[in-house]
Amino acid sequence: MAVKPSKADKKIAYDQKLCQLLDEYSQILIAAADNVGSNQLQNIRKGLRGDSVVLMGKNTMMKRSIRLHAEKTGNTAFLNLIPLLVGNVGLIFTKGDLKEVSEEVAKYKVGAPARVGLVAPIDVIVPPGNTGLDPSQTSFFQVLNIPTKINKGTVEIITPVELIKKGDKVGSSEAALLAKLGIRPFSYGLVVLSVYDNGSVFSPEVLDLTEEDLIEKFAAGVSMVTSLSLAISYPTLAAAPHMFINAYKNVLAVAVATEYSFPQADKVKEYLKDPSKFAVATAPVTASDAGAAPAASKEEEKKEEPAEESDDDMGFSLFD
Asked: Large ribosomal subunit protein uL10-like insertion domain: which residues (predicted)?
């Protein structure tokens, strides 16, 4: 008969497993496991099997193992995980793409009834329509102020009703009514709260960012740095081109207002002395344009000649 391991042996085995995972994986998803059953958790493990490992446990044990492992290896980046171990959470160690793993975890959600005392994670709205209940059940609807009518011997809800608001606790009347209607309004599964990647911790919303979003945010940051640098006259790589252009404009303005000149200002002074050069520069006449003008005038003359002949014809009468 096999001897059952003691609690101390289980703790030692758990500590070794967690330390092994910390050495092997550099990407970890911290997920909340509220209202997740063992069968559901087993299905999640099967779905992630291959490049990911789900590890659950007591927060105190996980924190202790992480601290000892950080002291042993000298990798203090693991200490960033400790503040995240609050509540009923688990760790998902993965070597795959973080976004794909997060989306895979979100697939394993199971519908659940509204139990008394639960805090509603979403708004619960009862849709209008026939409930299939006999008229003796109208007391439930009256208590909850739900407008109904009797249609063909059954209770029918007239308009949609917001039965429970997000964040409110489910009462006994609401739970009984939803159970009679066969409505399972809530769904539960592992919910990713934070992401750990090589010592960095960030929100899972970051995984939804595309390359276009990153480029847009980077451009906005560069623009802010440029504006600040120009405002305080502090040279930076982003503001340098604008500073050189502004300096050139200032020197050019001095050269135009005085006798001082330099090669880049000579051409500007030349244009200012003879403004007609601006028109020549902006509207050059090409040979094709010059040849097209006479051709167009000839076509206009040809078009006008038939018009004159038609006018003469219209001047005669059929009886002349």
From this structure: 114-183
| Residue 300 placed within a domain | no
- What is the C-alpha separation between 104 and 29, in angstroms, rounded? 12
Full DSSP string of 131-150: ----GGGHHHHHHTT--EEE
Report pLDDT digits (tens) over 209-223. Answer: 878 888 888 889 999
- Flag whether 7 is in a domain: no
pLDDT at 148: 87
Q: How many domains does the chain have?
A: 3
DSSP-derived 3-state class of residue 302: helix
Closest by CA position to 93, among listed 27, 189, 45? 27
The residue range of the domain holding 230 is 211-282
Strand duo 191-197 + 200-202: pairing: antiparallel
Which of helix, strand or coil describes residue 181?
A: helix
Length of the chain: 320
Give CA–CA dist 118/191, Å, rounded. Answer: 17
Please enumerate in sequence order all residues whose Cβ is within 8 A of that of 166, keeping only pairs 6 or more positions apart, or say none. 120, 121, 122, 123
